[in-house]
Automatic annotation (TrEMBL):
GO terms for biological process: DNA integration; DNA recombination. One of its GO terms (molecular function) is DNA binding. InterPro entries: DNA_brk_join_enz (IPR011010), Integrase-like_cat_sf (IPR013762), Integrase_catalytic (IPR002104), Integrase_recombinase_N (IPR010998), Phage_int_M (IPR053876), Phage_Integrase (IPR050808). It comes from the Bacteria. This is Tyr recombinase domain-containing protein. Belongs to the 'phage' integrase family. It comes from Escherichia coli. Keywords: DNA integration, DNA recombination, DNA-binding. Residues 56-174 form the Tyr recombinase domain. PROSITE patterns: TYR_RECOMBINASE. It holds the Pfam family Phage_integrase.
Length: 174
């Protein structure tokens, strides 16, 4: 029965979905065994019954093309100005996109030039993952260069006194 389900998903070309479905089935059945609802895990031997999804490895930008990237970012004016600033800041601080998207001004210490990403954040109502903080659920301290501080000050001029550094086009309820 589970094999038919997985094969049906695979036949539709949804290899990643088939792989995750197999993992979920195995986890559910393992839980049922631990809860003594069933004796054995019928999904334990489903590994390898579907074609594994094709993994794409995206190449890094060669260092010699960095000036071109910076030039293109500087010339980007089709979208929101905050988008351009966000991309520039990411190049300086190397943090996760969710850490940046849901960053608060209260996390930035301009005097000591550090950004303290908390272990967790107060979630924004109706916004998935907005309560995530640092990846390891421990405060993460990010040193801020002069360039990062300059970018943050430009962002502050745009966003004003909003609690979020990047408030988005639609205001959130905090």
């Amino acid at each position: 029965m589970a094999l038919d389900l997985l094969k049906g998903i695979e036949e539709k070309g949804l290899l990643e979905v088939a792989s995750r479905t197999r993992q979920h089935l195995s986890n559910i059945m393992r839980h049922a065994v631990h809860q003594e609802l069933i004796d054995t895990n019928p999904a334990a031997n489903l590994g390898g019954v579907t074609t594994p999804p094709v993994r794409r490895h995206y190449p890094a930008l060669p260092l010699e093309r960095l000036p071109e990237l910076l030039e293109r970012i500087g010339a980007y004016h089709q979208g929101r100005e905050l988008t351009r600033h966000a991309v520039l800041l990411m190049l300086h601080v190397f943090i996760r996109s969710s850490e940046l998207r849901f960053a608060r001004w209260s996390e930035i210490d301009f005097t000591n030039r550090v950004w303290t990403i908390p272990a967790t954040r107060e979630p924004i109502i109706g916004v998935r993952y907005s309560g995530r903080g640092a990846k390891m659920r421990m405060p993460h301290i990010v040193p801020l260069s002069e360039q990062s501080i300059a970018i943050l000050k430009q962002i502050k001029d745009i966003t004003g006194n909003n609690e979020l550094i990047f408030p988005g086009a639609v205001p959130y309820c905090l």
